[in-house]
Amino acid sequence: MITKNTNRMTDGAAVNVLDFGAVGDGVTDDTVAIQAALNHAASTGGTLMGIGNATCLVTSELSVSGGIKYDMMGDTIDGSGIANGTTYSEVAVLTVGGSIGSTVLLTSDVALGDQTLDVDSSSLAVGDYLLLSSSQLMVDGYSNPSNKRGELNRVEAITNGTSIKTAGGSLFAYATASSANIKLITPATGVSITNGKIIAGGVGSWHTGLRLDYCVDFKVENLDVSYAEDIGIATFYCYGGLIHGGVVEYSTNPNGGMAIASGTGYGTALLYATRDVVVDNVSYMRCKRAITGGARYPAVFNTVVNCVAEGGKNGLGSHEPCWWWTFTNNTVRGMAGVGFNIRGQYNKLSGNRIFDCAGTGIYVRTYYDNPEGITGTELTDNYLVRTAGIVLEGVQGRIIDTTISGGEIIDSNFNSLVVKTSDNVHIEGVRMSGQADAGSTDGNCVVVSGTVANGADNCTNVNISDCDMQDALRYGLKASYTQNLSIDGNRVGQSQREGLYLDGCERVSANNNKIKASVVAFTYGIGLRNCSESVVNNNHLNGNDDSGQTSNHGIAFIGDGSGNSCTDNMAVGNNINGHASAVLVTAINSGVVDHSVVVANNGRGCYGATKFNISSTNQSVANNLI
Q: Within 10 A of 620 (CB to CB), how many other CB atoms are there?
């Protein structure tokens, strides 16, 4: 070790930045001293220690290769005076990393899940880290040409001179016709940056705070980062790591601060194939977006847990090239935009709390054309208060295989839960109550939305069960142009329009629901307009017993408009009270209603003179109680 007293060096021993001439008074330029200390600690394997709650001014970027261990001891590295960059990811106050080698082409294609790679293995060894990639788009047909197929893996065995076995199966298929290849990574292993603060240059600087390249099993702990006008903490091609504790604040976008819709301004970004990183117990304050990931290659198997994001534009989330992320027990509040923005595949959100966001609380959406859509999203036991609820929206591609279970959505700014351009959606056990907006389309508990019959934006295979839908300013559930919709065992109360309103839907099953009308004007408990092949069975519908309302119907089948029809629908075994009529079957505005089956319903508790108002022909009506 080099010391002021002995000027001696011992490999592996701890050194202090003071030993290399750092002053830490916040005025003296400590760049050369700290850079020398970093180089020494990286080369000897020793731990670098800070001064202790000092401020070290640096005027150019710090960078080090290898497994540096730097305990900043409460020091602040003030990089606000570093020259401004001119583009993204150009300038970082501190960069730590390894390196990547040249391209070695594969000699045969790789199927999804393959562990064997046919490649010249003469320069490889067991335990080596690799980037496996090709020029193929992230998924076939994807419209953003900058997002390619690529992943990090590790050599488990050298099977012979022409093939290797990797530690995990490939996440994608790779074609030799698209230059499928590997690149050997020389990682920085065991990097540790702890107990300090980095200040970047703020608005106009294009600065990142801390950048980690090609790191394996790194640790960033109790590190605060302020005023990064790009990214607070960025990882590129990192395999395994922990970002724990600390505060990241005021990360903004170089092209427009908080206001710009796209671009950086991230608190933490896990980029370029970064995988198996845990972000835990970090606080994000006034960042344009607190956490994101992806970019050139998908970021995979990352976990965000126990974090807080407050203020700023958007909270936590993933770009579309992010796969198998988990967000657990995080809190997001006070965003000007979206709480969670989820654009990737197979993401899971559980036990998160979202408060007071002007935009959507959890927004799952496609971002670019993608024939495979966004697949496999799970939302479990999340709690949303005073946000625009949960939205699934296939903007270009479709949202596929989504489960929303448990949790609460309270006092939504618009609708509680919206499903658009989605397939195979299962919603179960969600409690929804209260909306703040009763506009022409908003103020509903659940909306399943399409725009025209057989349209490209229609939803299919949607199941909604065991949910509480209370105090909607319009509908408990409104569904338009949806095929194969199951509504089973839900409780709908105090909706100010209809309990369930279905328009242009096919093959609806509405069974065992309990629906209570509001005290104000209420039209239908369950209304089917221009629907077909649907079954309404064993529901309990309680109206408001307002004898002054003559258009208050328990169940309605309506053919509305020229060329439209409501056909082949059934109402069987329902118990209907407090409405003017139990069942209304009618055609209006030159519409058609026919082949309805109305059997074994109990309308004795309805107050109108005509309990079963069947005004069209070709209906089957039998064994109803009047």
A: 11
Structural contact between residues 213 and 241, judged by C-beta atoms closer than 8 angstroms: no
Angle at 302 between CA 301 and CA 307, to 5 degrees: 155
DSSP H or E run through 35: helix 31-44
CB 581 within 8 A of CB 601: no
215, 188 Cβ separation under 8 angstroms: yes
3-state secondary structure of 146: coil
d(CA 140, CA 481): 29
Q: Find out whether 307 and 291 touch, Cβ atoms under 8 Å.
A: yes
The answer to whether residues 237 and 216 touch, using CB atoms and an 8 Å cutoff, is no
Residue in 32, 44, 1 with CA at minimum distance from that of residue 19: 1
Residues in the chain: 626
Instruction: Let me know: does 226 contact 249? Beta carbons within 8 Å.
Output: yes
- The one-letter code for the residue type at 439 is G
Backbone angles phi, psi at 333, to 5 degrees: -150, 150
Burial 439-455 (b: 16+ CB within 10 A, else e): eeebbbbbbbbbeeeee
Say whether 425 sits in a helix, a strand or coil.
strand
Contact 531, 569 (CB under 8 A): yes
Phi-psi region of 604 (alpha: psi -120 to 50; beta: other; left: phi over 0): alpha
Amino acid identity at 116: T
Q: Residue 147: what residue type?
A: N
Tokens of 133: 């990639």
Q: C-alpha 6: how far from its chain's center?
A: 56
Tokens of 35: 């850079």
Cα–Cα distance between 504 and 99 in angstroms, integer?
A: 58
Map tokens 């649907």 to a residue: 534
Written as six digits, the tokens of 292 are 């994101």
**pLDDT for 253:** 78
Return all residues near 85 (Cβ < 8 A) that are at least 6 apart.
91, 205, 206, 207, 230, 254
Calpha distance 268→290 (Å, rounded)? 6
Two tokens at 307?
A: 């974090």
pLDDT digits (tens, 9 = 90+) for 351-400: 999 999 999 999 998 877 766 678 899 999 999 999 999 999 988 788 99
Helices (H) and strands (E) in the chain, counts: 1, 67
- pLDDT for 467-523, tens place per residue? 999 988 889 999 999 999 999 999 998 877 889 999 999 999 999 999 998 666 668
Torsion-angle region of 176 (φ positive above 0: left; ψ -120 to 50: alpha; else: beta): alpha
